[in-house]
């Protein structure tokens, strides 16, 4: 099952913030549309806090939630005790649904573990320094190659301008 792509999808402020008080410290309508397009039909892997901040399973995609204590009783959610277990479940779901990719969507603890073996990262760089209590790990340029880049000015429903970058893992 190694041919299933593992992709991190995240929005990160210039100073590394990804969350504050269980929510995102910005409103980015254009980025939410891109997130939906990137993840639709593909298994999404997230931690319990991220799931709780969303409030319900994301429609149109298998949801795998990592939690060691809490069990989410929903027919639309598969539970896992760890990231490796979540990825195993997500790979099976991807194979069963014909998806070639698993999307890892947060939060901070999940990203910190996943960055070590993800194949790709789709990062929306929020052009602001923001206070928060959840952060994304540093992107090591020796490990990650920035590819496709798209500057996105702030639209009327966006609090900040962004820069969308797709990073591919460099292979030794």
UniProtKB/TrEMBL annotation:
InterPro entries: DHFR, DHFR-like_dom_sf, DHFR_dom. SUPFAM superfamilies: Dihydrofolate reductase-like. Signal peptide: none annotated. Transmembrane segments: none annotated. Pathway: Cofactor biosynthesis; tetrahydrofolate biosynthesis; 5,6,7,8-tetrahydrofolate from 7,8-dihydrofolate: step 1/1. The keyword Transit peptide does not apply. This is Dihydrofolate reductase. It comes from Rhizobium vallis.
């Amino acid at each position: 099952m190694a041919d299933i792509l593992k992709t991190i999808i995240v929005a990160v402020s210039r100073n590394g913030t990804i969350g504050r008080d269980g929510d995102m410290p910005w409103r980015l309508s254009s980025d939410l549309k891109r997130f939906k397009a990137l993840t639709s039909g593909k298994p999404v892997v997230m931690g319990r806090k991220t799931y709780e901040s969303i409030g319900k399973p994301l429609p149109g995609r298998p949801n795998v939630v990592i939690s060691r204590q809490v069990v989410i009783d929903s027919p639309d959610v598969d539970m896992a005790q760890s990231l490796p277990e979540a990825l195993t479940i997500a790979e099976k779901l991807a194979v069963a649904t014909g998806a070639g990719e698993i999307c890892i969507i947060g939060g901070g603890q999940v990203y910190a573990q996943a960055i070590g073996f993800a194949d790709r990262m789709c990062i929306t760089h929020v052009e602001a320094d923001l206070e928060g209590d959840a952060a994304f790990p540093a992107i090591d340029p020796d490990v990650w190659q920035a590819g496709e880049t798209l500057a996105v000015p702030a639209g009327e429903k966006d609090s900040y301008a962004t820069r969308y970058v797709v990073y591919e893992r460099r292979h030794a």
